[in-house]
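Milestone 3.1: sequence recovery, worked example.
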């Protein structure tokens, strides 16, 4: 029996998927676990930064690092290595998830996606407007991007506290909202939070993006070429002056995410039988390649990278950035600072009002519907929880402000605003869970085969 290496010819076939596919469930589980790790890291950072040994916190993350090759060297602190280097993998995961949702996930269905999509836009625009209003005419106005993103891990982590009492569709709804929110945040960050680019490295970055597009067009399904081009792209973007984490987003968006063609899956038994007949290294290699070719490169890369991002990179980022030395002067300044006040109001009120109003507009005009087990009270609770802005908010704080005092005030605002949003959102979800049969302690709900229901005016007490 003659075997050839599996290929990925022809256009990918789109297949219909249930509302919660195994890959979505895996993503939700990873993000929920990440929230616990991030919370622990944040508490450790605050304890360390306010202990008698607090100077060691700054000294540790200021540790200089350098890599020298052929007389050329790249130098950065440990803190910058985490923010510029490791966080590229976090943004890679975001890009992969956006890519998957656009290709085979919830973002393909216009009616289902319109409510969370418009809600996400409202949750970006209104918080930014509130922050700009509070900080108008001050040096802190450049920090408007701090309030524009929802921390998916923390939101899903709060929902996990309610277990089966809340429908999976609510988690999927908020995940869709967070994905659209991330698209907007990443776009605005790329446009307004980058330095003046250098010409030659920027040209190299554009050429590498073109290489990724050609590889995708040719149907390259192996991961190694994408990883190598991705590393080169990170270096080019870093040297160009644009923030290098955007390289992770680009790789995530451009790597193929379409399901494998049916013929590729149908060939799996052939390679399996061949290996059963004769066990040798070559047939084992071909069988392994055939299995890999049957799953999209995007899903394979996400499975490999997401656990590292969720349980290592994001918690380390929290440890490196959440430590604020809370002296009396810092707290007094934060209580009256337009930065802290603007961030708290924008995160809590801006998201609650912006998301609810925009989503209600989509429902009222018939542009979209809510999934069958998600009701208006769920929407309000989710809108409040979306005010938890942590990872990207802290990330943009480092980009927006050079003044340490403004950074500290912004971090205090992020911590306070996120805590208020989490507590208030959890309370709303808990009250709603007691009163709605869709979130009963027994986990009963509408039959899963019921179609999405249009919006109706909420009943009293919902």
């Amino acid at each position: 029996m003659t075997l050839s290496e599996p290929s990925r010819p022809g256009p990918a076939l789109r297949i219909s998927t249930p509302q919660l596919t195994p890959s979505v469930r895996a993503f939700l589980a990873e993000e929920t676990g990440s929230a616990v790790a991030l919370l622990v890291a944040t508490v450790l950072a605050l304890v360390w930064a306010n202990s008698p040994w607090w100077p060691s916190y700054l000294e540790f993350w200021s540790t200089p690092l350098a890599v020298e090759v052929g007389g050329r060297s790249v130098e950065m602190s440990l803190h910058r290595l985490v923010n510029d280097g490791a966080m590229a993998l976090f943004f890679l995961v975001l890009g992969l998830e956006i890519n998957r949702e656009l290709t085979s996930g919830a973002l393909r269905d216009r009616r289902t996606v319109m409510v969370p999509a418009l809600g996400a836009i409202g949750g970006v625009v209104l918080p930014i407007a509130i922050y700009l209003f509070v900080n108008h005419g001050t040096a802190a106005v450049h920090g408007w991007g701090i309030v524009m993103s929802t921390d998916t891990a923390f939101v899903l982590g709060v929902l996990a506290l309610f277990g089966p009492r809340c429908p999976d569709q609510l988690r999927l709804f908020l995940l869709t909202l967070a994905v659209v929110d991330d698209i907007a945040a990443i776009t605005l960050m790329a446009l307004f939070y980058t330095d003046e680019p250098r010409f030659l490295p920027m040209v190299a970055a554009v050429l590498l993006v073109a290489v990724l597009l050609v590889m995708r067009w040719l149907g390259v399904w192996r991961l190694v070429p994408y990883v190598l081009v991705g590393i080169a792209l990170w270096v080019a973007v870093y040297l160009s002056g644009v923030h290098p984490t955007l390289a992770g987003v680009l790789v995530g968006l451009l790597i193929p995410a379409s399901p494998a063609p049916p013929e590729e899956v149908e060939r799996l038994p052939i390679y399996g039988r061949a290996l059963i007949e004769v066990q040798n290294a070559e047939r084992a290699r071909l069988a392994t390649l055939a299995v890999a070719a049957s799953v999209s490169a995007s899903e394979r890369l996400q499975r490999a990278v997401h656990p590292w991002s969720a349980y290592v990179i994001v918690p380390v980022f929290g440890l490196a950035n959440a430590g604020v030395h809370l002296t009396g002067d810092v707290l007094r300044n934060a209580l009256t600072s337009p930065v802290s006040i603007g961030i708290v109001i924008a995160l809590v009120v801006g998201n609650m009002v912006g998301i609810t109003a925009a989503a209600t507009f989509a429902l009222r005009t018939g542009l979209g519907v809510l999934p069958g087990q998600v009701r208006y009270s769920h929407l309000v609770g989710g809108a409040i929880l979306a005010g938890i802005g942590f990872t990207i908010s802290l990330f943009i704080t480092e980009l927006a402000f050079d003044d340490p005092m403004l950074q500290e005030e912004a971090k205090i605002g992020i911590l306070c605003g996120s805590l208020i949003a989490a507590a208030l959102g959890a309370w709303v979800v808990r009250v709603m869970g007691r009163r709605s049969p869709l979130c009963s302690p027994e986990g009963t709900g509408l039959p899963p085969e019921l179609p999405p229901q249009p919006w109706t005016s909420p009943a009293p007490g919902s």
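Residues 22-64+74-194+243-259+296-439 form a domain with the Na+/H+ antiporter like fold fold (CATH 1.20.1530.10). The chain has one domain: 22-64+74-194+243-259+296-439.
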